[in-house]
Amino acid sequence: MPRKTEFISYKPKTILNKNKRADHWFWTRYSAYPYLGCQHGCEFCYCREQKFSPYDDADDFAYKIKVKENAPELLRKALFRAKTDLIFIGDYQPAERKFELSRKMLEVCRERNFPVFILERSPLILRDIELLQDIESRARAVVAFSIIHTKNSPNYEKINRIERLAPPPEKRFEAMEKIASAGIMTGTSMMPLLPELCDDDANLEDIIRQTADSGGRFVLASGLTLSDQQRAYFFNYLAEREPQLLSAYEECYPRGKSYGAVGDKWCRTALKIREFCEKHGISDRMPRPIIDGDKRAKNKRIVEIFANKVYNMELERVSKNQIWAYRKAAWAIEDMEQDIALLYRMMGIKGLEKVPDIGKSLAKEVELLLIEMV
Ligand code: SF4
To answer: Is the CB of 166 inside a 6 Å radius of any atom of ligand 1?
Structure first.
């Protein structure tokens, strides 16, 4: 007998998670989610890890959905005090049809003029497309779809099984097309690229081609994370359903190590992705959404340029010192309260050199970027 889903309503004390600064991947500074647990139940989902899941039994993750019934009110209060920045928000698993909390949280963002970023496997998000258009016109809205395979993949059925109740990838591409036609920036998050199942060139290129054909502007990719109870859970799944893959995964994920697709192998995959992106005219980085009139718009643009440089240097395997110099400079510029262009106008290059972690040579680089931006 299939297990029944249980919804557990409760009232948490907080809803908004705040990071010190925006990440260099999705560019989000905040996050807020209405549910704990996910009915889609993808077998690889890192949210089963102990630090994210409220359950000791990894199986409960897909069947016991905790519903934060006061999420919109909590968000309204939190945004009242927060500086405007991009929020990673929402969750369009089937529970959303019944509780509509993602929609209500988006309404709060619209009310407070906060930009939003949503990452989805479900086309249910189309229900709220007009609301997203409204947010896009006042602040910014970005919708990325998680897609790791296509109808053409030889592993199509296997990956559909692994993604359990998540709607198939062709539905996500159709939704992407509608989101793009509505004038909202969209793209694909190829996460997690499962070793031996979806990291082959043909599949990578097909996802990128279909993203471009559907109006997507970017893809982001990363490997699979397996930690603590989620590692045991996923290995059990492989043992039962895909035993031929066990030895390859044991090699990728040796006991005690949580990450697999890192190092030279991952860099080769990432460079292939870049090559396919160039061929199909999209980016392998998500363009940073910046609100019109943001007084720190130039700071944010320079941070984006430095962060992209860091990513390139990581793929080129340059020295860690060089990478850290740019990363720390990006953080320092992100942390500035002041408009960096104004600082430069008032104090020239000497002012730039005074910003922490910007030495003489990086100050020169920042100066050139500011001149280009005029
Ligand atoms: S849709 Fe996302 S959150 Fe839900 S189970 Fe799949 S990977 Fe996890």
So the answer is: yes
